[in-house]
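User: Show me a protein chain along with its predicted structure.
Assistant: Here is one chain, sequence first, then structure tokens.
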Amino acid sequence: MKAREATAADRPCAVPPARPGEFRPLAVGPLRVWPPVVLAPMAGVTNYPFRRLCRDFGAGLYVSEMITARGFLEGNAFTRLLASGGADERPRSVQIYGSDPAEVGPMAAVLADEGVEHLDLNFGCPVPKVTRHGGGSAIPVKPRLMAALVRAAVRGARGVPVTVKVRKGIDDGLLTYRDAGRVAEEEGAAAIGLHARTAAQLYAGRADWGAIADLKTRVRIPVLGNGDVWEPWDALRMMRETGCDGVIVGRGCLGRPWLFAELAAMFDGRAPAPAPTLGEIVAVMRRHAAALVEFFGPHRGVLQMRKWCTWYVAGFRGAARARSALTRIRTLEEMDAILARLDAGERWTGAASRATSAGRVQERVRLPHGYLADRDDAAPPVLPAAAWAAAADGG
């Protein structure tokens, strides 16, 4: 999809594009990222085919989905595949998921030896199958444990920049992001990303950008803001309101990789291009599907594409019926036949994607029994092998 040069009249922006020199490239160790935009690591989403697609549209830094340290070190074939990239992927970025420094450190060393240029540590995953074993967003509850993990990764990486991704905390009564920022800085992290929701919120409710601004005043390392970047101007508004050094884009790009082209335009001082038509989106879907089949193989690639189809067509007329059929496709030819029934000239509106954050949901966060009894404990949680396998399936 190659859009024509846009003007402000084509697509009115809620905020003006960047002024010359208003923002600087994001500094992550020796890396300089422009625009200062990071594709969020998302389990089951940010594999190499999607990262490559986003790169084609203009994202700045593209992080893999979380890769479990134990599975990686044990040579699990699928884990290794998810951690892999392509010759065109520079800088190559991998997110590590682990809660034992004895595993995180060696994994960082192996990845550095393989030429990975950026490592991120997952301290933000809120899903119950991760937190109930003391992983993800449960880790910052214990600052000494988090410190040991960051220290191990930084030492293992031997100069490759290590960043951390956290949430505000467990819930409104147990905020951890301030301690997490202090620990990240003290232990040598190159930057910290803050998803401005608690684990209890999961992905609902409004993100608290005030927490991003607060963290920015407390640390010297770069702060990346995450949460409620649905439109390209949301990213500029977040940076202007919070002073953060860059933005992390997650759910806003699901079924919408061209968001990164819009972000690049806004940061370069230009209005975003007109929203694409369904026909243009179908062309993107075919590229994406072909890349998934090439990477995962014909059967698994088509299965992967099913969920992507539902994201791509959300909000279009007739999408409900089409989505039901698309979740059952067995071949890409079936996908093409279903899409051919829709109006190729209809233009994307984006209303469906933003609706996913409506409301205020609070879930009880599941933690290991007695986990809060000693927050100074630095001992890694004891995780059964099945827990690691489950975490790898979608935190």
